[in-house]
Design goal:
A: alpha+beta, Rossmann fold, 2 domains, six-stranded mixed sheet, five-stranded antiparallel sheet, elongated, B: 13 strands, globular
């Protein structure tokens, strides 16, 4: 097993446009790293440079202590999992896993038997080795394909959108299998996806990319709670974060429906009279009736007219339109384009207790947790109120070690 | 309910009338002319439909992937590469799926047919198949196509003279770039070798339990890399030599032409600063050198493999004409006579002799090959009648390309041997 280090990686194509621009990422030994972003962000290009499919324009690609920029894919000792997961109907499960070893010609029959048996034990396929693939369940078949990657004893696993090719049911099943396998083997893993839910559920750390530039690399929790900018804030989370105009006036911040007190630690980060973009997660709101007395005081209550509600059984959302100044609207439209989303963002989405009786067209009293707000610079998109966490890499590796142990 | 969105390149009534509003899995033979084709396991649902006189393959995919494959097939078609042709894309918003429609390649067959119909130990025939695959991958790579999942199951084969042509059938993982990096090519070759090895072992397991042939098959799969590299290097090699050695240009061109490659341009430029050494660069064109020549001379349109064979026959015919006439007969004139006097009548007889299997021109090529092999064995020319009889009795020399006519049965153009055969 090995770490993967990307130092100032640049990829330029013939037209000179940098598809990946000065990206540096350290993937610790045993870490599960996700590369995520909308299409065109450079995540797949980055993965292909790790594998050796794309030439690197500049920068260093290190696997362990070795610089691999000029090495052929085969010499890098990486496994692209699910690159080929065709199962062969007349070969036993054992042979379906063993054939890459037979082909390499480097192993004795005894070694092959040992490697395949160990992989099968890890994947709980031990009892099925003599069967044919037709007699396996869907999940077991996927594990056979993973077994093929395991027996190679690769230094790292790489996944390039492995679930995009599957239907919804298999997708969930496979996600669990991948996570279980990675935790059990503790193998360094880089996983590319465009799906932020997949990124949040799988990764120790998540690297968010936009137009070839690394935006933020952090644990899923930190990305969610302390995004560095509007882009990350808008990309991570479902339903997405609400963005509303926020005018700082004296000791208060005026939002479209309500004003909240300006926190002392924010005073030197903002200017009086200026309009910012406030980011508020749907979950920072609540139907005022359902707020615990204990936490009510840290927020504010206000009345609005509910436009539409969506009740999903275990959760409920309400939508409330608002007006925004032209400059904010254009900034939000640009953000929507960057995020590949067509969503109209001049309405807020509010998460309500599923028991709330608020319905379409109702006048409702909502509560807003004033502590769960970020202010963004409308010109640069920077998060002005972010609180940096302790060293994230240590956090990520710790979580992994705990799970593997 | 949202209606399905249709994109069809051949909006024929049969295709338009298919029940696109229902999931592919629910189509039944009662309402739809489905054809049962054994194509081996696939990660997606695949069905075959026969309508408007053609056979169509339908594959159900997530919409994003389907659009990508449809686009990739379009680019591959523009590059005139051997591949199935895209025929349509249907988006079914209600099921969040799409159906990719391709037209089944007429006269083509899956590798299983060859293995199941020939004796298990037929390395020469397997070699033809592997050459076809390596050549296909070289052609794809020359045009910037990364396949991503080259395997026996994702390839269809067709006969072309004494060689087999391979075609790409599945472009799910394909990408088209202006040019490929060495890493992309290497990975693609690695994937091909691994997939083919597994595919061959699978077939062997089915035929005889597998272990007896296993090592040999692994060796054959590994030879794919050598075949690929040999051809790639021949096309891209840039040798350096002195001006006095410029005859090497001719040798190089002849070699390329023999393999069927047309040469677009040759350049000799100074290699290094001294100016006495030249670097040869050959811009290699399409692999249709003999086919183009034959079309221009005789007006017949055939595959490159067939053309190679037929041109040999034409030259022999011309020599015979000259000796009979006692003076020179030019090649275009000889070609006209050759088609009328020899090819057309004999082709019909050869096709009849093989029970009208495959195409008539291929039957003629088989006749030429069998006649030549039998004559070589007998030490004298055995003549056309003897060769026709051998074809009719299907007693042809083993390892001959003609032996491959077994893959053309049954004569119905679309049926494929299924797993139970």
């Amino acid at each position: 097993m090995a770490s993967i280090t990307m130092r100032n990686i640049v990829k330029k194509y013939g037209d000179g446009f940098p598809a990946v621009n000065d990206v540096s990422i350290d993937v610790a030994d045993g870490e599960f790293m996700i590369l995520v972003g909308p299409s065109g962000c450079g995540k797949s290009t980055l993965l292909r440079m790790i594998v050796g499919l794309e030439d690197i324009t500049s920068g260093d690609m290190m696997i362990g202590d070795t610089r691999v920029n000029d090495k052929a894919p085969r010499e890098r000792n990486l496994a692209m999992v699910f690159q080929n997961y065709a199962l062969y109907p007349h070969l036993t499960v054992f042979e379906n896993i063993a054939f890459p070893l037979r082909l390499s010609g480097k192993h004795s029959e005894e070694e092959i038997r040992k490697l395949v048996s160990e992989a099968a034990a890890t994947l709980e396929l031990g009892e099925h080795l003599d069967r044919k693939p037709a007699n396996l369940s869907g999940g077991q078949r996927q594990r056979v394909a993973m077994g093929r990657a395991i027996v190679r004893q690769a230094d790292a696993f790489l996944f390039d959108e492995p679930l995009s090719n599957l239907d919804a049911k298999l997708r969930g099943q496979m996600r669990t299998e991948i996570l279980r396998l990675q935790r059990r083997l503790g193998v360094t893993t880089v996983y590319v996806t465009h799906d932020q839910t997949e990124a949040m559920t799988l990764g120790d750390r998540v690297a968010v990319l936009k137009k070839g530039v690394l935006q933020q690399i952090a644990s899923p929790r930190e990305l969610y709670d302390q995004p560095v900018n509007l882009f990350v804030a808008g990309f991570i989370g479902s339903p997405p974060m609400n963005f509303v105009p926020a005018r700082v006036t004296g000791d208060t911040i005026e939002l479209p429906f309500v004003s909240i007190p300006l926190r002392d630690e924010w005073r030197d980060k903002v200017q009086d009279g200026k309009i910012y973009i406030a980011g508020v997660r749907p979950g920072a709101f609540e139907d005022a009736e359902f707020v615990d007395a204990g936490k009510k005081s840290r927020g504010v209550t206000f009345g609005v007219t509910i436009d539409v509600t969506e009740w999903l059984g275990n959760e409920q959302y309400a939508f409330v339109p608002f007006e925004a100044p032209a400059e904010i609207v254009s900034q939000l439209a640009e953000l929507a384009a960057d995020l590949d989303s067509e969503q109209m963002r001049t309405q807020i989405c509010v998460e309500l207790d599923p028991l709330s009786r608020v319905r379409n067209g109702d006048e409702a009293t909502l509560w807003l947790d004033a502590e769960r707000i970020h202010l963004f610079d409308p010109a640069t998109g920077d998060n002005l109120t972010r609180v940096e966490a302790a060293d994230d890499a240590v956090d990520g590796a710790g979580r992994h070690a705990a799970a593997a142990g | 309910m949202a209606a399905p969105e249709l994109r069809l390149r051949t909006p024929s009534p049969g295709l338009l009338g298919l029940p696109w509003e229902r999931p592919l899995a629910e189509w039944s033979t009662l309402q739809v002319p489905l054809r049962d084709m054994a194509v081996g396991p696939s990660r997606h649902l695949v069905e075959f439909v026969e309508c408007d006189g053609a056979l169509w393959a339908l594959k159900e995919l997530p919409p994003r992937i389907a659009v990508r494959e449809y686009d990739a097939l379009g680019r591959i078609e523009e590059l005139h590469l051997n591949a199935v042709r895209r025929a349509g894309l249907v988006h079914q918003p209600d099921f969040d799926t799409a159906i990719l429609l391709t037209r089944y390649l007429q006269g083509s067959w899956q590798y299983r047919r060859l293995f199941l119909r020939l004796p298990p130990d037929a390395p020469k025939q397997r070699s033809r198949l592997l050459d076809g695959m390596a050549s296909l991958l070289v052609e794809l790579h020359r045009r910037g196509v990364f396949w991503g999942d080259c395997s026996l199951a994702n390839t269809l084969f067709s006969r072309d003279g004494q060689v087999l042509q391979a075609s790409l059938v599945d472009a799910e993982t394909s990408e088209v770039h202006p040019r490929l990096s060495d890493g992309q090519r290497e990975l693609d070759v690695d994937v091909m070798v691994e997939n083919v090895a597994a595919g061959l072992m699978d077939i062997a397991a089915r035929i005889d339990g597998g272990t007896a042939l296993r090592d040999q098959l692994v060796g054959e799969a590994l030879s794919l890399r050598t075949r690929y590299v040999g051809l790639w290097d021949l096309l891209h090699d840039e040798p350096v030599f002195g001006y006095a050695d410029r005859h090497r240009v001719q040798r190089r061109i002849r070699k390329l032409n023999e393999l069927g490659f047309a040469v677009d341009e040759v350049s000799l430029r100074h290699a290094g600063s001294s100016g006495d050494q030249l670097r040869l660069k050959v811009a290699v064109g399409d692999r249709n050198y003999h086919a183009t020549q034959l079309r221009e001379l005789a007006g017949i349109d055939v595959g490159e493999g067939q053309a190679t064979h037929l041109l040999g026959d034409l030259h022999a015919y011309q020599a015979q004409l000259c000796s009979e006439a006692g003076h020179d007969v030019d090649l275009p004139t000889a070609a006209q006579l050759w088609v009328m006097e020899l090819v057309r009548p004999t082709m019909t007889r050869a096709h009849a002799a093989v029970g009208r299997r495959g195409t008539a021109i291929q039957a003629y090529c088989d006749l030429l090959e069998v006649r030549w092999l039998l004559s070589e064995r007998a030490g004298r020319d055995v003549g056309t009648e003897r060769a026709l009889a051998a074809l009719a009795e299907a007693v042809v020399p083993s390892d001959s390309a003609a032996q491959l006519m077994v893959v053309e049965t049954p004569t119905e153009p679309f049926s494929v041997l299924d797993d139970t055969e």
